[in-house]
Amino acid sequence: MIKAVIVEDSRLARNELKELLKAHVDIEIVGEAENVDIGFELIQKENPDLLFLDINMPEKDGFELLEMLDEVPITVFTTAFDEYAIKSFEYNALDYLLKPINEKRFEIAIEKVKAKIEGKTDEVATKKLSENSQIFIKDGEKCWLVKIGSISHFEIVGNYTRVFFKDEKPLLYKSLNQVEEKLPEESFFRVNRQQIVNTSYIKSVVPWFNGKLKLTMENNDEIEVSRRQSYLFKDKMSL
């Protein structure tokens, strides 16, 4: 059973989604909300697999809700505005639906949702994120939904954390310590006070001064492992 939440300020639009979902007995609507704050509480309580999210809502918009979440469910945006529809792909939403929602277009979105869920490996319920978990990052006017496993490393910038993935390096408005608490330990390693690396993205490791190590990441960033962490790193990587 796929647990779904609807966050949409229009009652008519919520009812439209519920009516369309009646044809899918394997999707259970566990709650609905008319604004971001109620939606946030509902998602924290129900931990849904799927989120139908209106973008343009009063007070706070859909992107602000995603920014509030530690882990983002599979998200299908709903919007009455074409401009948002195009942008949603930049944010890596699974899909978007223009209102009023076309039934055939809705079925295509649901097929994508089910394929995405079936492709996920079974994960033990834990407070930590998995490599398949995704987080929402908003930096200035740009937004991303980023899979944890696609992040190569994290770095302290003042009270915030810079996130490195592909050719992007936006700021996440959380401390590195907050980030570290959520990361899967099998993939990520705290190499020094300032940085955490995804060991899958290490291209080379060489001895450095005073018993330290130097890592070269796949994007060619060079990162120094502190002396204390170098011993732990060698043990972790069986070096």
UniProtKB/TrEMBL annotation:
<dbReference type="InterPro" id="IPR046947">
    <property type="entry name" value="LytR-like"/>
</dbReference>
<feature type="modified residue" description="4-aspartylphosphate">
    <location>
        <position position="54"/>
    </location>
</feature>
<dbReference type="InterPro" id="IPR007492">
    <property type="entry name" value="LytTR_DNA-bd_dom"/>
</dbReference>
<keyword id="KW-0597">Phosphoprotein</keyword>
<feature type="domain" description="Response regulatory">
    <location>
        <begin position="3"/>
        <end position="114"/>
    </location>
</feature>
<dbReference type="Pfam" id="PF04397">
    <property type="entry name" value="LytTR"/>
</dbReference>
<protein>
    <submittedName>
        <fullName>LytTR family DNA-binding domain-containing protein</fullName>
    </submittedName>
</protein>
<dbReference type="InterPro" id="IPR001789">
    <property type="entry name" value="Sig_transdc_resp-reg_receiver"/>
</dbReference>
<dbReference type="GO" id="GO:0003677">
    <property type="term" value="F:DNA binding"/>
</dbReference>
<feature type="domain" description="HTH LytTR-type">
    <location>
        <begin position="135"/>
        <end position="239"/>
    </location>
</feature>
<dbReference type="Pfam" id="PF00072">
    <property type="entry name" value="Response_reg"/>
</dbReference>
<keyword id="KW-0238">DNA-binding</keyword>
<dbReference type="InterPro" id="IPR011006">
    <property type="entry name" value="CheY-like_superfamily"/>
</dbReference>
